[in-house]
Each structure stands twice: as C-alpha cells, then as structure tokens.
Design goal:
The chain is mainly alpha-helical. It has helices spanning about 30-50, 55-60, 65-70, and strands at about 95-100, 105. A two-stranded antiparallel sheet has the order 1-2. The two termini are about 25 Å apart.
C-alpha cells in the first residue's frame, strides 16, 4: 500500500500504523457477545462529541477541564454549533479486540 501512496500514520509515531488488507472475520457467536458493547462505545463517543461541540455541559460541570479539550490538536473550533446530518459525527470507529489464551474475545479499547 505504501508503494502506491496509500498511508495511514500517526503524527507521533515513526513507523506507519499497521493496517491489514484482509479483514478479520469474527464468528457470529463471538460478535453476539461484543456487538452491544461496541455499539455502546460508539454511542458514548457520539454523545461526548455532541456535547463538546454543542452545549458543553461536560465542561460547565467541570467533568473535564476546558483547557484539556480546547488545547487538543484534534479539537476543531470551527465545528462548534454544527449539527451534523442525522446527528452522526463518527463515521468510522476503530475498536481493538483481543483474544485471551482460552480463545475468548473481549473489547480492549
């Protein structure tokens, strides 16, 4: 991929982010145990971003220091007050999954 000009890197990392061309298949039985948690994680992230770029209740309540958000290099001041179509801000989300020594799958991040 890199030789074709396709890259996915992290600004702080010296090596490209590893990306598998072939997706990993998760058995239906494993996915049925993970799906609700993954969906909940994305809903929580959506709610967080909606608040940060909307009412900012989380900042007013002091749950997070305002400076922590506003000083983040990924914070987009221009996005404040924008109500995205269908309320969706996160169109792609990466969730790390791990298998333990018994072969059980769990959500890592």
């Amino acid at each position: 991929m890199v030789d074709q000009g396709i890259t996915f890197s992290l600004s702080w990392a010296s090596d490209p982010f590893p990306l598998d061309l072939v997706p990993r298949v998760i058995a239906a039985v494993d996915w049925s145990k993970l799906e609700r948690g993954v969906a909940q994680r994305v809903r929580a992230l959506e709610a967080f971003l909606a608040d940060v770029y909307g009412d900012r209740q989380i900042l007013r309540d002091g749950v997070l220091p305002r400076r922590l958000i506003t000083s983040c290099e990924h914070f987009q001041r221009e996005a404040f007050g924008i109500d995205p179509r269908n309320g969706v801000r996160i169109h792609v989300s990466g969730v790390d999954l791990v298998r333990d020594e018994e072969g059980r799958t769990s959500r890592c991040t």
